[in-house]
Design a protein that fits this description.
Layout (H helix, E strand, L loop, with lengths): L2 H22 L3 E5 L5 E6 L4 E6 L7 H34 L12
Antiparallel strand pairs: 1-2, 2-3
Helix pairs in contact: 1-2
Length: 106
Amino acid sequence: MDLMGMMGKLKETQQKIEDTKKRLDTVLIDEQSTDGLLKVTLTANRSVKSITIDDSLLEDKEQLEDYMILVINKAIEKATKVNEAELDAVAKMDMPMIPGMDNLFK
């Protein structure tokens, strides 16, 4: 087993993962309520970029809070899927299969 080669490969993969994480900061995920009154934009790294609230939602604090929770959670779910798919692709592409190593990048 070529340990030096594997360590080099591991470093390379870690670098690719870092690069992918940086790139995911520029991937935007848009989500909105079914009536379009609340819109949220996240990065694929699950960082909120913008929230747009229709004035009609400002009348009803409880409805607005419900909308926020619902829409933000949906956006986080979408962003998480994109994030995991991208990082999995990098890890699978470059990783020599070593038993027990597949949990390292989770």
